[in-house]
Amino acid sequence: MTTLKNLFLVTFFCVLGSFGVGCNKTSVSPHDTSPNKNLPANFSKGAFILNEGNFGWGVATVDFLSFEKDTIYADIFAVANNNAPLGNVVQSMLPAPDCFLLSVNNSQKVEIVNNSNFKRQKTINGLRSPRYMALSSNSDKVFITDLYDTALSVAELKSGQVLSRINLGFSSEKIARFKDKILVCAGSLDYKTGQFLVIDEHSQKIIQRINLESMPLDMTLNGNTGQVWLALAASDTKNGSICCLEYNTNYTLAQQSTLPNFKPRKICYDEQEKKLYVLAQNTVYTTNTSHAKLELFLSFPSAQIIYNMSVNTQRKELYLTEALDYVQKGKLLVYDLASKKLKKTYRVGVIPSEILFTD
C-alpha cells in the first residue's frame, strides 16, 4: 500500500497508502456484484484481497477470491469472528505455519488467525504503526516494520509478545528474509533519505547498510539467488527509479533505471519469465531482470485510481486493485499477461490494496 509522501496528502481521505495511477474505464462489468457472505470450504487456490477501509474511521476487511468457485467471499474476518471488526487499515498479510498474520496499521496491532477457518488466535500489541512482516527461518518469530517508529519489532508467534526491538534510525516499509538475513527497506518520511538494511536474524544486528537515492517504497526478492529489486520514490527534484542489488556474501548495487516523471510505487517479479512489472502513476511497465530498460506494458489514462498490483505467475495473470473514490467499494481487475486483455472484474471492499495468492 503505501508511498510515504502521498500519505500526508491523503490520510484524511484514505488509508496510509501510496497511490499512483488512474485506470481506464472498462466495458466489463463487475463479475460478482453480490459477494458471498459465507466462508469458503478452504483457502486453497485463490487470492486474499486486503481492503484498507478509510483511515481513522473506516473498517478494514479481507475478501477471498476462490479460483475454483469464481466467487468473492467478503469480509471473512468478521464472518469467522462473530462480526468482530478487524480494525482500521489492514496493511499486509503473511502466511505462517497453521496461521495467517494480518498487520492492522492504524489499530497498532497484528492479528494472528487460523489458516483453515480464519478465527482469531491471538493479537500482537505494543506496536506503533505496523506495516510489513517477515518470518524467522524457523518460523517462531516475526519481524515487523513500522511507519512511525524507527525500530523494527520482533515478536514471538507462540505467545504473541514483542520480545525485542532493533533500532534502525529510520521509518521502515517492505521486509523480506533471504536465508538467515532480514532485508529491510528504510528511510525518511519525506522520501529524501533511503537505505537498504541487512540484519542477521540470530544476533539481530545490522550487518550492512546501503545508502540509496531515496526511500525504497517496494521490494521484490529472487528467493533462489538473493537478488533484490527496489522501487525508489520520486521527490520534488528527482525522478523515482528502480534498482537492482546483487547478492554475493554481501549486497552490492548493480544497476538502476528511470524515466522522465517516473514515480514507481510497486514492483513485482515473475520468476518463470524472469520479468519485472512496475506500477508507476497511471502505467504498468515491464523489464527483463538481466537489464533495467523499462518498457510500456499497460496504461490507464482516466481518472480512477489503480492502487496496487500483483502477478500470479502460475495463472499468468496480472491483478490490479482500483480504489475508485476511496469511499465506495473498489474493484479487482484481472488481466491476461500474454494478451494484455482484461479478463474479469470483481467488486471487493473499500480501498483494496495488497493481494496474497494461495495457489
State the CATH architecture: 7 Propeller
Classify the beta-strand content into a percent band.
over 45%
Q: Which CATH first-tier class would you pick?
A: Mainly Beta
The CATH topology annotation reads as Methylamine Dehydrogenase, Chain H
Strand-pairing-aware structural class: mainly beta
Topology, number of strands: 29
Unreliable stretches (pLDDT < 50, length at least 5) are 1-33
Mean pLDDT across the residues is 90
Shape: globular
Number of helices: 2
Percent of residues in helices: under 10%
Give the tally of structural domains: 1
The value of Rg in angstroms is 19 Å
For the record, what is the CATH homologous superfamily label?
YVTN repeat-like/Quinoprotein amine dehydrogenase
Distance between the termini: 22 Å
Main beta sheet: strand number and arrangement? 5 strands, antiparallel
Strand order within the widest beta sheet: 1-25-26-27-28
